[in-house]
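To: structure subgroup
Subject: Chain for Friday's discussion

All,

I'm putting the inputs and outputs inline so they're searchable in the archive.
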Amino acid sequence: MSTVNDMAEMPVQLPRDPANAAEARSRYFNSGNAFNIKLPPVPGKIFTDEPARALRTEATGFIDCDLSDKLQCAFPATTPLMLARYAVVKAHETLDTTLTNTASIWYVIKGKADLVAGDEKAVLGKGDVFLLPGGVPSSITGREDSVFWAVGNDPQLRFDVSAPLTGEEAAVNLVHYPADEITHQLDVVYGSNANAGTSGHALIFSAEKTEASRNITPTMTLSLNTLKPKSAQPPHKHNSAAITLVVHGDPAYSMVADAKCDWSPWATLVTPPAAKHSHHNDGNSRAEFLIVQDGGLYYHARTMGFEFY
């Protein structure tokens, strides 16, 4: 019997006399000590060194936006469930993009390249977006020096110790969103009026398999947001974490909690879950920024918690 008076101070309880290995693996906590784990909060962060390194295009490979040390996470992670990375592919070189995730969302920052994913192929150019299924043998070969930005749910699968399904049961297929089609679709949105309950003028990306949920993958959402010149998106919050790529904005910045995060070309901004934040365009041209959120999880759980201040 334990001599500790406070349940919260009790150590883990082990089985008294296990009859076999399966019983020996059992562990017991209580309502005092099971819920007092203190995890570090997701920090607000803007990555600027990583895109600068990527744009130097010195060597083919990945450059992670890794906050695992701040998150006390045993694997690379930008937020607890998502990993953002830059990818460099030198001309006539090939990068293996076979990743252990459900899917990754990619944006072509510069260059031209050939993508092979399973038995499908695509020619990629600046401004393209593509959705790459996880676990499928894939690679990118540069026709010229090329730089990409990508976000996948790699940490989610590492945390859950799971692997992506492939083939007909896969959660996503390869999807290619060419830059000229994105421009057309965004112009359609930008030319429409937004009511007071709409979060600005944004193009939301979806796919054939995820059309019903209006997400791009089961757990992740992708939007290309805009801000008109001399305008701002009002302060708001949501329970999903957000990873933002600065596409264009001069000068522009974001407020995350009370911290001002100045935008720079192709920087990656991390907005913690439930953090008050807003985006501001002080320039004379339209600001554009790509936002990936793990919002699909929260929509499915009915806990998105979006609200303006």
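Points worth raising on Friday:
The first strand starts at residue 45 and ends at 47.
The longest helix spans residues 179-190.

D.
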